[in-house]
Amino acid sequence: xxxxxxxxxxxxxxxxxxxxxxxxxxxxxxxxxxxxxxxxxxxxxxxxxxxxxxxxxxxxxxxxxxxxxxxxxxxxxxxxxxxxxxxxxxxxxxxxxxxxxxxxxxxxxxxxxxxxxxxxxxxxxxxxxxxxxxxxxxxxxxxxxx
Length: 146
Prior knowledge:
Elements: H1 26-34, E1 39-44, E2 47-52, E3 55-60, E4 70-74, H2 77-86, E5 91-92, E6 102-106, H3 112-127
Antiparallel strand pairs: 1-2, 2-3, 3-4, 4-6, 5-6
């Protein structure tokens, strides 16, 4: 029997507040990213950034079109399209970022697991090897030798 209820049944209290989601900030992003090989703290346009083997992985969004508390993460454009459709409350893009292979992330809405997956995706994108072309051999031009 539940005390305080006339029939002794449990009911959800009204006006209950859910526990706040743990705050994700750039320190959280840094902690996750620095666990990846070759990732280091850096700056981009004077703001906090993370680079993998010297290439930008993620940084604090500074363009005025980005919402405060957003992160820019480098991703393939097809992956970005999927993220935008899958979870538009977390991922977004503004006109400024449309032509760049990146997605904006609302740190106040992303979970640590989703962030970990996103940074892993970004790491693979940034560090992928480009398809190498056949090596060009150094050939001498036909002509008289000296």
